[in-house]
DNA sequence: CGACTTCTTGACCAGTCGGTCTAGAACGCC
DNA sequence: GGCGTTCTAGACCGACTGGTCAAGAAGTCG
Protein backbone atom coordinates (compact mmCIF):
# COMPACT_ATOMS: atom_id res chain seq x y z
CA UNK A 1 0.00 0.00 0.00
CA UNK A 2 1.01 3.63 -0.25
CA UNK A 3 2.48 5.30 -3.29
CA UNK A 4 4.92 3.02 -5.10
CA UNK A 5 8.53 3.96 -5.84
CA UNK A 6 8.89 5.95 -8.98
CA UNK A 7 12.29 4.40 -9.71
CA UNK A 8 14.20 1.15 -9.63
CA UNK A 9 16.53 1.09 -6.62
CA UNK A 10 19.08 -0.97 -8.52
CA UNK A 11 19.28 1.52 -11.35
CA UNK A 12 19.73 4.38 -8.91
CA UNK A 13 22.42 2.52 -6.99
CA UNK A 14 24.22 1.77 -10.21
CA UNK A 15 24.23 5.40 -11.26
CA UNK A 16 25.32 6.46 -7.81
CA UNK A 17 28.12 3.88 -8.02
CA UNK A 18 29.25 5.46 -11.23
CA UNK A 19 29.27 8.93 -9.71
CA UNK A 20 31.18 7.81 -6.61
CA UNK A 21 33.61 5.87 -8.75
CA UNK A 22 34.27 8.86 -10.95
CA UNK A 23 34.52 11.57 -8.32
CA UNK A 24 35.23 9.81 -5.03
CA UNK A 25 33.07 9.87 -1.94
CA UNK A 26 33.86 13.36 -0.66
CA UNK A 27 33.66 14.92 -4.11
CA UNK A 28 30.21 13.56 -4.88
CA UNK A 29 27.57 15.85 -3.42
CA UNK A 30 23.90 15.02 -2.88
CA UNK A 31 23.17 17.52 -5.64
CA UNK A 32 25.40 15.57 -8.03
CA UNK A 33 23.83 12.29 -6.97
CA UNK A 34 20.43 13.77 -7.62
CA UNK A 35 21.51 14.85 -11.08
CA UNK A 36 23.24 11.55 -11.87
CA UNK A 37 20.24 9.50 -10.84
CA UNK A 38 17.50 11.82 -12.01
CA UNK A 39 15.90 11.59 -8.57
CA UNK A 40 15.30 14.62 -6.38
CA UNK A 41 17.45 14.91 -3.29
CA UNK A 42 14.49 14.41 -0.96
CA UNK A 43 13.53 11.13 -2.61
CA UNK A 44 17.11 9.94 -2.50
CA UNK A 45 17.27 10.55 1.23
CA UNK A 46 13.88 8.99 1.71
CA UNK A 47 15.02 5.83 -0.03
CA UNK A 48 18.62 5.54 1.20
CA UNK A 49 18.74 7.45 4.51
CA UNK A 50 22.13 9.08 3.96
CA UNK A 51 24.91 9.65 1.48
CA UNK A 52 26.97 7.20 3.43
CA UNK A 53 24.33 4.49 3.20
CA UNK A 54 23.91 5.00 -0.52
CA UNK A 55 27.65 4.76 -0.92
CA UNK A 56 27.75 1.50 1.02
CA UNK A 57 25.11 0.05 -1.30
CA UNK A 58 26.98 1.29 -4.35
CA UNK A 59 30.17 -0.29 -3.08
CA UNK A 60 28.44 -3.65 -2.58
CA UNK A 61 27.09 -3.43 -6.11
CA UNK A 62 30.56 -2.69 -7.46
CA UNK A 63 31.91 -5.69 -5.61
CA UNK A 64 29.22 -7.97 -7.00
CA UNK A 65 29.82 -6.85 -10.56
CA UNK A 66 33.59 -7.10 -10.23
CA UNK A 67 33.36 -10.57 -8.76
CA UNK A 68 31.14 -11.73 -11.58
CA UNK A 69 33.54 -10.35 -14.18
CA UNK A 70 36.51 -11.90 -12.39
CA UNK A 71 34.77 -15.27 -12.23
CA UNK A 72 34.06 -15.14 -15.96
CA UNK A 73 37.62 -14.20 -16.79
CA UNK A 74 39.11 -16.93 -14.61
CA UNK A 75 36.73 -19.55 -16.01
CA UNK A 76 38.04 -19.11 -19.54
CA UNK A 77 39.87 -22.00 -21.15
CA UNK A 78 43.65 -22.12 -21.50
CA UNK A 79 46.61 -22.58 -19.23
CA UNK A 80 46.62 -20.88 -15.85
CA UNK A 81 49.28 -18.41 -16.82
CA UNK A 82 47.55 -17.48 -20.06
CA UNK A 83 44.18 -17.25 -18.37
CA UNK A 84 45.48 -14.91 -15.69
CA UNK A 85 47.48 -12.87 -18.15
CA UNK A 86 44.39 -12.40 -20.28
CA UNK A 87 42.31 -11.51 -17.23
CA UNK A 88 44.75 -8.84 -16.08
CA UNK A 89 45.00 -7.45 -19.59
CA UNK A 90 41.24 -7.31 -19.88
CA UNK A 91 40.95 -5.29 -16.69
CA UNK A 92 43.68 -2.91 -17.82
CA UNK A 93 42.01 -2.60 -21.22
CA UNK A 94 38.77 -1.75 -19.50
CA UNK A 95 40.38 0.94 -17.37
CA UNK A 96 42.07 2.48 -20.41
CA UNK A 97 38.87 2.40 -22.44
CA UNK A 98 37.05 4.61 -19.96
CA UNK A 99 36.74 8.30 -20.76
CA UNK A 100 38.13 9.13 -17.31
CA UNK A 101 40.83 7.32 -15.38
CA UNK A 102 39.14 6.36 -12.15
CA UNK A 103 40.91 3.26 -10.93
CA UNK A 104 39.18 0.64 -8.79
CA UNK A 105 36.36 1.77 -6.54
CA UNK A 106 37.38 -0.63 -3.77
CA UNK A 107 40.99 0.54 -3.81
CA UNK A 108 39.89 4.17 -4.06
CA UNK A 109 37.68 3.64 -1.02
CA UNK A 110 40.56 2.04 0.85
CA UNK A 111 42.62 5.14 0.16
CA UNK A 112 39.93 7.71 0.85
CA UNK A 113 38.03 6.22 3.77
CA UNK A 114 39.44 2.97 5.16
CA UNK A 115 42.19 4.72 7.10
CA UNK A 116 39.69 6.66 9.18
CA UNK A 117 36.72 4.33 9.33
CA UNK A 118 37.19 0.81 10.71
CA UNK A 119 33.83 -0.38 9.41
CA UNK A 120 34.66 0.70 5.86
CA UNK A 121 38.08 -0.86 6.33
CA UNK A 122 36.52 -4.22 7.17
CA UNK A 123 34.18 -4.01 4.20
CA UNK A 124 37.00 -3.09 1.84
CA UNK A 125 39.16 -5.86 3.21
CA UNK A 126 36.43 -8.41 2.62
CA UNK A 127 36.10 -7.17 -0.95
CA UNK A 128 39.84 -7.33 -1.52
CA UNK A 129 39.91 -10.90 -0.25
CA UNK A 130 37.53 -12.07 -2.96
CA UNK A 131 39.84 -11.83 -5.96
CA UNK A 132 42.55 -13.45 -3.86
CA UNK A 133 40.24 -16.38 -3.24
CA UNK A 134 39.30 -16.61 -6.91
CA UNK A 135 42.94 -16.51 -7.99
CA UNK A 136 43.89 -19.12 -5.39
CA UNK A 137 41.23 -21.45 -6.74
CA UNK A 138 42.37 -20.91 -10.31
CA UNK A 139 46.00 -21.59 -9.44
CA UNK A 140 45.07 -24.70 -7.51
CA UNK A 141 43.17 -25.86 -10.53
CA UNK A 142 46.30 -25.19 -12.56
CA UNK A 143 48.27 -27.41 -10.24
CA UNK A 144 45.73 -30.19 -10.67
CA UNK A 145 45.81 -29.64 -14.43
CA UNK A 146 49.59 -29.87 -14.29
CA UNK A 147 50.28 -26.48 -15.87
CA UNK A 148 51.46 -24.99 -12.57
CA UNK A 149 54.41 -26.34 -10.57
CA UNK A 150 53.49 -28.31 -7.46
CA UNK A 151 55.75 -26.16 -5.35
CA UNK A 152 53.88 -22.97 -6.25
CA UNK A 153 52.16 -21.74 -3.10
CA UNK A 154 48.74 -20.99 -4.56
CA UNK A 155 47.63 -18.60 -1.86
CA UNK A 156 50.90 -16.67 -1.77
CA UNK A 157 50.95 -16.25 -5.54
CA UNK A 158 47.29 -15.26 -5.52
CA UNK A 159 48.02 -12.54 -2.96
CA UNK A 160 50.91 -11.40 -5.06
CA UNK A 161 48.79 -11.24 -8.22
CA UNK A 162 46.02 -9.38 -6.41
CA UNK A 163 48.62 -6.90 -5.24
CA UNK A 164 49.84 -6.55 -8.82
CA UNK A 165 46.28 -5.86 -9.89
CA UNK A 166 45.87 -3.23 -7.20
CA UNK A 167 49.03 -1.59 -8.47
CA UNK A 168 47.95 -1.83 -12.09
CA UNK A 169 44.71 -0.05 -11.47
CA UNK A 170 46.54 2.84 -9.87
CA UNK A 171 49.18 2.85 -12.61
CA UNK A 172 46.48 2.76 -15.29
CA UNK A 173 45.49 6.27 -14.20
CA UNK A 174 48.75 7.72 -15.49
CA UNK A 175 50.50 5.03 -17.60
CA UNK A 176 49.81 3.60 -21.04
CA UNK A 177 49.02 0.12 -22.30
CA UNK A 178 52.52 -1.00 -23.34
CA UNK A 179 53.94 -0.28 -19.89
CA UNK A 180 51.05 -1.97 -18.15
CA UNK A 181 51.29 -5.00 -20.44
CA UNK A 182 54.99 -5.34 -19.67
CA UNK A 183 54.17 -5.26 -15.97
CA UNK A 184 51.58 -8.00 -16.44
CA UNK A 185 54.08 -10.15 -18.34
CA UNK A 186 56.62 -9.76 -15.56
CA UNK A 187 54.04 -10.57 -12.91
CA UNK A 188 52.55 -13.71 -14.39
CA UNK A 189 56.07 -15.07 -14.87
CA UNK A 190 56.01 -16.10 -11.19
CA UNK A 191 53.74 -18.93 -12.28
CA UNK A 192 56.59 -20.36 -14.33
CA UNK A 193 58.66 -21.06 -11.26
CA UNK A 194 57.71 -20.53 -7.61
CA UNK A 195 59.25 -17.73 -5.53
CA UNK A 196 61.39 -18.93 -2.68
CA UNK A 197 59.26 -19.40 0.39
CA UNK A 198 62.03 -20.20 2.81
CA UNK A 199 62.54 -18.43 6.11
CA UNK A 200 65.93 -17.02 5.15
CA UNK A 201 65.40 -15.27 1.86
CA UNK A 202 69.10 -14.52 1.46
CA UNK A 203 69.98 -18.02 0.38
CA UNK A 204 71.04 -18.52 -3.20
CA UNK A 205 68.55 -19.89 -5.70
CA UNK A 206 68.38 -23.67 -5.83
CA UNK A 207 71.02 -25.07 -8.20
CA UNK A 208 68.45 -26.23 -10.74
CA UNK A 209 64.73 -26.81 -11.02
CA UNK A 210 63.19 -30.18 -11.87
CA UNK A 211 64.23 -29.77 -15.47
CA UNK A 212 67.91 -29.89 -14.49
CA UNK B 1 61.82 45.55 3.68
CA UNK B 2 58.29 45.22 4.98
CA UNK B 3 57.29 42.96 7.82
CA UNK B 4 59.12 39.62 7.66
CA UNK B 5 57.40 36.23 7.60
CA UNK B 6 56.48 34.99 11.01
CA UNK B 7 56.98 31.34 10.01
CA UNK B 8 59.21 29.05 8.02
CA UNK B 9 57.58 28.18 4.70
CA UNK B 10 59.15 24.74 4.70
CA UNK B 11 57.75 23.85 8.10
CA UNK B 12 54.30 24.99 7.05
CA UNK B 13 54.49 23.01 3.80
CA UNK B 14 55.59 19.93 5.70
CA UNK B 15 52.68 20.15 8.10
CA UNK B 16 50.28 20.80 5.25
CA UNK B 17 51.73 17.74 3.49
CA UNK B 18 50.95 15.70 6.56
CA UNK B 19 47.39 16.94 6.67
CA UNK B 20 46.79 16.30 2.96
CA UNK B 21 48.39 12.89 3.24
CA UNK B 22 46.20 11.94 6.17
CA UNK B 23 42.88 13.29 4.93
CA UNK B 24 43.19 13.70 1.18
CA UNK B 25 42.88 16.91 -0.77
CA UNK B 26 39.12 17.37 -0.67
CA UNK B 27 38.86 16.41 2.99
CA UNK B 28 41.43 18.93 4.16
CA UNK B 29 39.79 22.33 4.67
CA UNK B 30 41.55 25.66 5.01
CA UNK B 31 40.44 25.65 8.63
CA UNK B 32 42.21 22.32 9.18
CA UNK B 33 45.30 23.55 7.39
CA UNK B 34 45.30 26.61 9.61
CA UNK B 35 45.07 24.43 12.68
CA UNK B 36 47.68 21.96 11.48
CA UNK B 37 50.18 24.68 10.65
CA UNK B 38 49.38 27.10 13.46
CA UNK B 39 49.05 29.88 10.89
CA UNK B 40 45.87 31.91 10.46
CA UNK B 41 43.93 31.25 7.28
CA UNK B 42 44.61 34.73 5.94
CA UNK B 43 48.36 34.33 6.28
CA UNK B 44 48.20 30.95 4.62
CA UNK B 45 46.43 32.45 1.63
CA UNK B 46 48.80 35.39 1.61
CA UNK B 47 51.78 33.07 1.45
CA UNK B 48 50.46 30.32 -0.83
CA UNK B 49 47.66 31.90 -2.92
CA UNK B 50 45.28 28.96 -2.79
CA UNK B 51 44.65 25.57 -1.27
CA UNK B 52 45.55 24.08 -4.61
CA UNK B 53 48.91 25.85 -4.70
CA UNK B 54 49.76 24.79 -1.18
CA UNK B 55 48.88 21.24 -2.09
CA UNK B 56 51.15 21.35 -5.13
CA UNK B 57 54.03 22.49 -2.93
CA UNK B 58 53.26 19.80 -0.36
CA UNK B 59 53.24 17.18 -3.10
CA UNK B 60 56.64 18.31 -4.37
CA UNK B 61 57.99 18.11 -0.85
CA UNK B 62 56.62 14.60 -0.45
CA UNK B 63 58.28 13.59 -3.70
CA UNK B 64 61.63 15.01 -2.61
CA UNK B 65 61.54 13.23 0.71
CA UNK B 66 60.44 9.95 -0.84
CA UNK B 67 63.16 10.12 -3.45
CA UNK B 68 65.79 10.72 -0.82
CA UNK B 69 64.60 7.77 1.22
CA UNK B 70 64.46 5.57 -1.88
CA UNK B 71 67.99 6.59 -2.85
CA UNK B 72 69.26 5.70 0.62
CA UNK B 73 67.52 2.34 0.59
CA UNK B 74 68.80 1.41 -2.85
CA UNK B 75 72.34 2.47 -1.97
CA UNK B 76 72.62 -0.06 0.81
CA UNK B 77 75.10 -2.90 0.42
CA UNK B 78 74.09 -6.43 -0.51
CA UNK B 79 72.83 -8.24 -3.56
CA UNK B 80 70.26 -6.54 -5.76
CA UNK B 81 67.49 -8.86 -4.73
CA UNK B 82 68.22 -8.48 -1.03
CA UNK B 83 68.59 -4.74 -1.35
CA UNK B 84 65.25 -4.36 -3.08
CA UNK B 85 63.55 -6.80 -0.76
CA UNK B 86 64.80 -4.82 2.21
CA UNK B 87 63.72 -1.54 0.63
CA UNK B 88 60.20 -2.77 -0.01
CA UNK B 89 59.95 -4.19 3.48
CA UNK B 90 61.14 -0.91 4.96
CA UNK B 91 58.44 1.02 3.16
CA UNK B 92 55.78 -1.45 4.25
CA UNK B 93 57.10 -1.31 7.80
CA UNK B 94 56.88 2.45 7.71
CA UNK B 95 53.28 2.38 6.49
CA UNK B 96 52.30 -0.09 9.19
CA UNK B 97 54.05 1.90 11.89
CA UNK B 98 51.89 4.96 11.25
CA UNK B 99 48.94 5.56 13.56
CA UNK B 100 46.69 5.90 10.50
CA UNK B 101 46.81 3.96 7.26
CA UNK B 102 47.23 6.63 4.63
CA UNK B 103 49.05 4.98 1.75
CA UNK B 104 51.27 6.94 -0.61
CA UNK B 105 50.47 10.59 -1.20
CA UNK B 106 51.41 10.39 -4.88
CA UNK B 107 49.22 7.36 -5.48
CA UNK B 108 46.41 8.89 -3.44
CA UNK B 109 46.66 12.01 -5.55
CA UNK B 110 46.56 9.92 -8.72
CA UNK B 111 43.33 8.37 -7.50
CA UNK B 112 41.71 11.52 -6.18
CA UNK B 113 42.75 14.15 -8.71
CA UNK B 114 44.74 12.87 -11.68
CA UNK B 115 41.68 11.52 -13.47
CA UNK B 116 40.12 14.97 -13.68
CA UNK B 117 43.13 17.27 -13.85
CA UNK B 118 45.69 16.78 -16.63
CA UNK B 119 48.24 19.01 -14.95
CA UNK B 120 48.11 17.02 -11.73
CA UNK B 121 48.25 13.86 -13.84
CA UNK B 122 51.50 15.01 -15.46
CA UNK B 123 53.00 15.91 -12.09
CA UNK B 124 51.99 12.59 -10.58
CA UNK B 125 53.32 10.71 -13.58
CA UNK B 126 56.68 12.45 -13.26
CA UNK B 127 56.80 11.50 -9.60
CA UNK B 128 55.91 7.90 -10.33
CA UNK B 129 58.67 7.72 -12.92
CA UNK B 130 61.33 8.49 -10.34
CA UNK B 131 61.30 5.23 -8.38
CA UNK B 132 61.22 3.39 -11.71
CA UNK B 133 64.40 5.19 -12.71
CA UNK B 134 66.06 4.47 -9.37
CA UNK B 135 65.12 0.79 -9.55
CA UNK B 136 66.31 0.53 -13.13
CA UNK B 137 69.69 1.92 -12.11
CA UNK B 138 69.96 -0.48 -9.18
CA UNK B 139 69.10 -3.48 -11.35
CA UNK B 140 71.58 -2.43 -14.01
CA UNK B 141 74.19 -2.18 -11.29
CA UNK B 142 73.21 -5.69 -10.25
CA UNK B 143 73.81 -6.90 -13.77
CA UNK B 144 77.26 -5.33 -13.74
CA UNK B 145 77.89 -6.86 -10.31
CA UNK B 146 76.83 -10.21 -11.71
CA UNK B 147 74.05 -10.87 -9.20
CA UNK B 148 71.32 -10.28 -11.77
CA UNK B 149 70.96 -12.33 -14.93
CA UNK B 150 72.04 -10.59 -18.12
CA UNK B 151 68.72 -11.35 -19.74
CA UNK B 152 66.79 -9.45 -17.08
CA UNK B 153 65.27 -6.41 -18.73
CA UNK B 154 66.15 -3.79 -16.12
CA UNK B 155 63.56 -1.25 -17.11
CA UNK B 156 60.73 -3.78 -17.41
CA UNK B 157 61.52 -5.32 -14.03
CA UNK B 158 61.81 -1.84 -12.49
CA UNK B 159 58.36 -0.95 -13.80
CA UNK B 160 57.05 -4.20 -12.43
CA UNK B 161 58.57 -3.58 -9.00
CA UNK B 162 57.27 -0.01 -8.91
CA UNK B 163 53.85 -1.40 -9.71
CA UNK B 164 54.25 -3.89 -6.88
CA UNK B 165 55.11 -1.04 -4.57
CA UNK B 166 52.06 0.93 -5.66
CA UNK B 167 49.97 -2.13 -4.88
CA UNK B 168 51.67 -2.71 -1.54
CA UNK B 169 50.93 0.77 -0.33
CA UNK B 170 47.25 0.31 -1.07
CA UNK B 171 47.24 -3.17 0.44
CA UNK B 172 49.03 -1.87 3.54
CA UNK B 173 45.88 0.07 4.37
CA UNK B 174 43.93 -3.11 5.04
CA UNK B 175 46.41 -6.01 5.21
CA UNK B 176 48.98 -7.08 7.78
CA UNK B 177 52.74 -7.52 7.66
CA UNK B 178 52.93 -11.28 7.01
CA UNK B 179 50.75 -11.00 3.91
CA UNK B 180 52.67 -7.98 2.63
CA UNK B 181 56.00 -9.71 3.26
CA UNK B 182 54.86 -12.75 1.32
CA UNK B 183 53.90 -10.48 -1.56
CA UNK B 184 57.33 -8.86 -1.49
CA UNK B 185 59.02 -12.25 -1.52
CA UNK B 186 56.99 -13.31 -4.52
CA UNK B 187 57.73 -10.08 -6.34
CA UNK B 188 61.48 -9.92 -5.89
CA UNK B 189 61.70 -13.50 -7.12
CA UNK B 190 61.52 -12.11 -10.66
CA UNK B 191 65.13 -11.07 -10.18
CA UNK B 192 66.11 -14.72 -9.83
CA UNK B 193 65.16 -15.43 -13.39
CA UNK B 194 63.94 -13.00 -16.02
CA UNK B 195 60.34 -12.94 -17.16
CA UNK B 196 59.89 -14.01 -20.74
CA UNK B 197 60.13 -11.01 -22.98
CA UNK B 198 59.25 -12.83 -26.17
CA UNK B 199 56.43 -11.85 -28.46
CA UNK B 200 54.54 -15.07 -27.82
CA UNK B 201 54.39 -15.47 -24.08
CA UNK B 202 52.67 -18.84 -24.28
CA UNK B 203 55.88 -20.72 -25.03
CA UNK B 204 57.09 -23.13 -22.37
CA UNK B 205 59.87 -22.11 -20.00
CA UNK B 206 63.40 -22.85 -21.19
CA UNK B 207 64.52 -26.32 -20.09
CA UNK B 208 66.94 -25.05 -17.43
CA UNK B 209 68.68 -21.88 -16.33
CA UNK B 210 72.45 -21.38 -16.31
CA UNK B 211 72.80 -23.50 -13.19
CA UNK B 212 71.47 -26.62 -14.99
C1' DC C 1 61.46 59.68 13.86
C1' DG C 2 58.15 59.12 9.83
C1' DA C 3 57.25 56.87 5.48
C1' DC C 4 56.72 52.71 3.21
C1' DT C 5 56.18 47.97 2.75
C1' DT C 6 54.73 43.43 3.81
C1' DC C 7 53.04 40.73 7.14
C1' DT C 8 49.08 38.78 10.58
C1' DT C 9 44.65 38.24 12.05
C1' DG C 10 39.91 37.49 12.53
C1' DA C 11 35.72 39.23 10.62
C1' DC C 12 33.38 38.61 6.66
C1' DC C 13 31.54 36.71 2.08
C1' DA C 14 28.71 34.10 -1.29
C1' DG C 15 28.13 29.46 -2.27
C1' DT C 16 27.69 24.75 -1.13
C1' DC C 17 27.53 21.00 2.07
C1' DG C 18 24.70 16.96 4.00
C1' DG C 19 20.29 16.72 5.51
C1' DT C 20 15.16 17.84 6.90
C1' DC C 21 10.58 18.99 6.15
C1' DT C 22 6.26 20.29 4.23
C1' DA C 23 2.91 20.15 0.71
C1' DG C 24 0.83 17.40 -2.11
C1' DA C 25 0.74 13.39 -5.61
C1' DA C 26 -0.15 8.38 -6.39
C1' DC C 27 -1.24 4.36 -5.31
C1' DG C 28 -4.06 -0.09 -2.50
C1' DC C 29 -7.92 -0.98 0.15
C1' DC C 30 -12.50 -0.81 1.76
C1' DG D 1 -15.00 7.80 -3.64
C1' DG D 2 -12.88 8.47 0.92
C1' DC D 3 -8.91 6.85 3.74
C1' DG D 4 -4.37 5.67 5.04
C1' DT D 5 0.02 5.22 3.51
C1' DT D 6 4.17 6.03 1.14
C1' DC D 7 5.98 8.40 -2.26
C1' DT D 8 8.00 13.02 -4.79
C1' DA D 9 9.78 17.57 -5.15
C1' DG D 10 11.84 21.44 -3.91
C1' DA D 11 12.06 25.00 -0.34
C1' DC D 12 14.59 25.36 3.56
C1' DC D 13 18.28 24.70 7.36
C1' DG D 14 22.61 25.52 10.13
C1' DA D 15 27.34 24.49 9.31
C1' DC D 16 31.10 24.88 6.74
C1' DT D 17 33.60 25.69 2.27
C1' DG D 18 37.42 28.20 -0.28
C1' DG D 19 38.60 32.70 -0.33
C1' DT D 20 38.82 38.07 0.55
C1' DC D 21 39.56 42.09 3.11
C1' DA D 22 40.27 45.84 6.37
C1' DA D 23 42.80 47.11 10.38
C1' DG D 24 46.73 47.14 12.38
C1' DA D 25 51.51 45.02 13.73
C1' DA D 26 56.40 44.63 12.60
C1' DG D 27 59.90 45.29 10.09
C1' DT D 28 63.49 48.48 6.55
C1' DC D 29 65.05 52.68 4.97
C1' DG D 30 66.05 57.61 4.77
Query: Radius of gyration of chain A in whole Å, from Cα?
Result: 21 Å
SS element count, helices of chain A:
9
Largest interface: A-B, 65 and 63 residues
At the first level of CATH, what is the class of the domain at 60-197 in chain A?
Answer: Mainly Alpha
Shape of chain A: elongated
Multimeric state: homodimer
How far is the N terminus from the C terminus of chain A? 76 Å
| Unreliable parts of chain A | 193-212
Task: Please give a structural write-up.
2 copies of one chain form a homodimer. The first copy, chain A, has a domain at 60-197: Tetracycline Repressor, domain 2, CATH 1.10.357.10. The first copy, chain A, has 9 helices and no strands. Chain A has helices at residues 9-23, 30-37, 41-48, 51-74, 80-97, 105-114, 118-145, 154-171, 177-188. In chain A, helix 6 (105-114) runs antiparallel to helix 7 (118-145), helix 7 crosses helix 8 and helix 8 (154-171) packs antiparallel against helix 9. Chain A is elongated. The model of chain A is unreliable at 193-212 (pLDDT under 50). At the A-B interface, helix 5, helix 6, helix 7, helix 8 and helix 9 of A face helix 6, helix 7, helix 8 and helix 9 of B.
What is the topology?
2 copies of one chain form a homodimer.
Chain A: H1 9-23, H2 30-37, H3 41-48, H4 51-74, H5 80-97, H6 105-114, H7 118-145, H8 154-171, H9 177-188
Helix pairs in contact in A: 1-2, 1-4, 4-7, 5-9, 6-7, 7-8, 8-9
The structure holds a DNA duplex (30 and 30 nucleotides).
Amino acid sequence: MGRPRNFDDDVVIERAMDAFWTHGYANTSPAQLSEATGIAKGSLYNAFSSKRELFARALVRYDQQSSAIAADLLARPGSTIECIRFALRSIVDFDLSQPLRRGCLVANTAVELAGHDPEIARTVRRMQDRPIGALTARIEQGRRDGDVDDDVHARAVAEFLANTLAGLRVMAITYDAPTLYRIIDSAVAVLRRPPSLRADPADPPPPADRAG
